[in-house]
Design goal:
There is one protein chain. It contains 10 helices and no strands. It is mainly alpha-helical. It is globular, with a radius of gyration of 17 Å.
Length: 184
């Protein structure tokens, strides 16, 4: 499963902020590990950057947090994810598109300056850059721009909608049409 450049940046940004996101959700490392069905050490390694986050782990984490947001109608958690992860990446996408429209050459591996992280984090991100073949495979033939998988697009849209509060009720109703998980 190839990961495009922009998807990898989303994954890296989520990993960089996993600890604070988990804490805002009110979970211990063990509780998040139990939600994911993994060992506590796996979550710890992701939070500390000892292990790079895979696309599958990213999708699982986004799904778990989105379900928690809908279950508790927790707009604060949704806003934190949107502010720490989605907004910086979306800003970088807008900047790249503006540069491309202005005719500036933009390298596929141009660094993303998000204002977060330290030299060690940046070095770890450098090591995980996708190969040229991966980048080439992830671009559309028509535009040559990086594309996001359907799952990543859906999670970004859902988190944004939950942050605004407009979709929380709908998603809760769809997940629990009988009124909630505790109603019988």
């Amino acid at each position: 499963m190839a990961t495009s450049e922009i998807e990898q940046r989303w994954i890296d940004k989520f990993q960089e902020n996993l600890g604070p996101i988990r804490k805002v959700a009110g979970w211990t490392t063990q509780q998040l590990a139990d939600e994911l069905g993994v060992a506590r050490q796996t979550v710890s390694n992701l939070e500390t950057g000892k292990s790079p986050m895979t696309k599958l782990q990213y999708l699982a984490l986004r799904t778990v947090f989105s379900a928690e947001i809908a279950r508790r109608e927790d707009r604060d958690l949704a806003r934190i994810i949107k502010t720490l992860v989605d907004d910086p990446i979306e800003q970088r996408i807008r900047e790249r598109r503006a540069q491309e429209q202005d005719g500036e050459a933009v390298a596929d591996n141009a660094p993303v300056n998000t204002g977060c992280g330290n030299a060690a984090d940046n070095a770890a991100t450098e090591k995980r850059k996708p190969s040229a073949a991966t980048l080439k495979a992830s671009k559309t033939a028509a535009t040559g721009k990086p594309t996001l998988s359907t799952a990543m697009q859906a999670l970004a849209v859902i988190t944004g909608a939950l942050a605004s509060g407009t979709a929380a009720g709908i998603i809760t109703y769809l997940m629990f049409p009988d009124g909630g998980p505790n109603k019988r």
